[in-house]
Amino acid sequence: MVAVKTQALYNEILEAIESNKLPIPSQPEIATELQEVVNDPGVTVEDLCKIIKKDPGLTARILRLANSPLVRGRVPIQGLDNAIARMGVGFVGNLAIGLALEQMFKTSNKLIAQRMIAAWEHCSYVACICSALALQNAKLPVDQAMLAGLLHEIGILSILSFAEKHPEILADEQTLDKIIETHSAKLSQAIMTAWQFAPELRSIPVELYDYYLKKDKADLADTLLVAKIYALDDTTHPLTKLNRAELPAFKRLGLDPKKSLDHYSELKEAVDLARKLLG
């Protein structure tokens, strides 16, 4: 019964999107500006500085990261321009885009707000694990790994925005949970496509569920899958029911599927540090 009702509600959401009755959420203005300059091959440090400095809180977080062991900086950085020069325009731009999206996970509806806060905290935690895993693999871009983590459940916003206007959905938490669990990945991909993210990035929310896809080496989808599994430890989420020993992502990342995140002290330390920096 739940499955039928869930599918019916999801079909209603999709129909609303297709008929423009449920618009895909717009990026915050600063995130849109950041994406434009990051995609511009001629962008300069000064161009990126001008945009980030519009948000003092974002500037402070970038500076904290620039002075952290995560980017292995030895000389203290004080100015945003120097931080960008150290980490690179692409790295800082992608990180800033992800952090700027946090403001979208807010609403005056208390029930929806609780879910949005939980969703952002989960995405932020996953992003921190993604970045730590990427740091251990020189071939994986840390900035894109973190951005993938922050964005991978952005589709929840479409579902919750719809639910906010339909009290009957809010009243049925089990069905709402099922909708989010089953369909947020495809909606995330749709939103990232509408926001014109690169194809290799916007495909990740869906690709991470193709658990047994054969690949020559680890990629961002592997990183996101493992990070999400670690983040969901001690929950009843379906991902925790998978046999980790059968998941190629762990092997490609050089991880023992039988061991938890806590077993890897250096990895755990990097994750904890990233959480403090992003908090």
UniProtKB/TrEMBL annotation:
Domain HDOD per the UniProt entry, residue ranges: 24-211
SUPFAM superfamilies, sorted: HD-domain/PDEase-like
PROSITE patterns: HDOD
Domain of life according to the entry: Bacteria
Coiled coil: none
Any Pfam family: HDOD
Record's protein name: HDOD domain protein
Species, as recorded: Candidatus Berkiella cookevillensis
Taxon lineage: Bacteria, Pseudomonadati, Pseudomonadota, Gammaproteobacteria, Candidatus Berkiellales
